[in-house]
Amino acid sequence: MKKIFLSIMLFSIVGTMLAQNGIDALRYSQQYYSGTARFAATGSSFGALGGDLSTLSTNPAGIAIYRRGEIAMSPSMLENNTDATFSGNTVSNNKKYGFNLGNIGGVMAFVDDDIDGWKGFSMGATYNRLNNYTNYTQIEGTNDKGSMLNDFMFSADGKTVDELDSYVAFPAYDTYLIDIADTVTYLYTNPLFWNLPEGESDPQYGQTQRKIIDKKGGSGEYAFSVGANYSDFLYIGATMGIQSFFYEEKSNYTEFGFKDSCNLDNFTYSENLRVNGSGVNLKLGIILRPLDFIRIGGAIHTPTAFTVSEQYSTSLSSYWNAPMSEDDNAYDQPDALSAQTTSEAYRGIYKITTPLRLIADAGFVVGKFALLSAEYEYIDYSSMRMSSQFYNYFDENEDIREQFVATHNFRGGAEFRLGQVSLRGGYALYGNPYNLDVLDRTDATRTQISGGIGIVTGNVYLDFAYIHSTQNDSYFLYNGYIDEPKPELAYTTGQGMVTVGVKF
């Protein structure tokens, strides 16, 4: 007897990559400013103090603090580790290493201390790293409440074979993982229902689920800035930012260890995603110096309108035990003990508009001995938007409004000078972007602790920094049932940086 399994499904933010959604918009909207080693060591909070190439991407008025020219370069090495806990099982030490350029650029300053009023003008160009996507994750555990086979089945329900999508439902049909149960309503079934013991109506779960996710890429900004100094009291600046990103994700999802009645040994669903994007924004900044030792500033960043190009493909393979006779099973199975299929590559172009950013910062200069800095950043991730001339993204944008919230980010740091040597430390807190009132997922607040040392010899300086970041997050293997277990991920990142610079 053909049995149809119905359940309430949780259509939320999931791990599969078929359709663009809020997770994509969030990935390309989040920024964890890197820049120079000095900037990173002090919590990326130098907005009001200025005089650092990194501030061209945070508070562009910082360029007006310069009193002479500077060029610098900041290579960086990072180690990402992910601990994944799923259904009581933890897979630890998923490490991946990456190398990137945190910053490279230069500034020219023209200052005349003998005049009052507008006494200084600065201009500069720099590249600053904004985010790193490098990561490797392996998830594994036993699920006694569901299977991706059901996701294949529900994605096909109500559609003829010719109407099945090319990336999920049709590959499942082509590899015998789903079959038509009712040719009138076009409801589908899968091997979990094909040979249940007599008297049983629900599938026998308990198979092992494993997913391996390999990511690489990052985002950065080419910042072109100008600034002016009015009587060493008012500093203003503007930056035209050209941002770009590259993201690649390859994943393999496998289920194995099915009950004998299923006759399916295992299947593997693979996804390949490659994304490039670029966009332009404008930043305006101001710094006031009411007293010699106090600086107060603020900046506004317009949204960045990214044009995104994407390439996506999937493949699916199934492996079977000895075929059952027609008396045991009325549904199709492959003549051989395996079946494979690969989709054509989807190529598409769409747009993502990131949120507006507002920054307020303060700095304190304690003679020639110390600097203290603090910064607040406001970002409303519910204002992210997706668009395309071929698709309206109405549902996706409604989900973004509901599933994301405004965040309040805090950064702070200090620098202590001991002659030619400077000691630095910092802390940053990046707020959780998800609306936990409507989403069943972990608080994804990110914290960063940093430290470093700087050495100055004449016009040449050498800075070192180390940044330790931690963050927890939830992951969804597929559109599963409400009570299915979901993986919980713990990210730890260590990043080492060095900056070599010359002032002239």
Outline of this structure?
This protein is mainly β and 504 residues long. The chain has helices at 22-29, 37-41, 148-156, 169-174, 394-403, and strands at residues 70-86, 89-111, 118-132, 135-143, 179-182, 187-189, 207-230, 234-256, 264-291, 294-301, 305-320, 338-342, 346-353, 357-366, 370-380, 385-387, 406-418, 421-430, 446-457, 460-474, 488-503.
Helix content: under 10%
What is the quaternary state of this protein?
single chain
What composes the largest sheet?
Answer: 14 strands, antiparallel, barrel
- Supply the CATH superfamily name: Outer membrane protein transport protein (OMPP1/FadL/TodX)
Q: What percentage of amino acids are in beta strands?
A: over 45%
Q: Kindly report the spatial arrangement of strands forming the biggest sheet.
A: 1-2-3-7-8-9-10-14-15-17-18-19-20-21
CATH architecture heading: Beta Barrel
Any overview of this molecule?
The chain is 8% helix and 54% strand. With 504 residues, the protein is mainly β. It has a single domain, classed as Porin (Beta Barrel). The strands form two sheets. A 14-stranded antiparallel barrel has the order 1-2-3-7-8-9-10-14-15-17-18-19-20-21. Strands 5-6 form a two-stranded antiparallel sheet. The longest helix is centred in the last third of the chain and has 10 residues, at 394-403. The radius of gyration is 27 Å and the shape is elongated. The model is unreliable at 1-18 and 325-330 (pLDDT under 50).
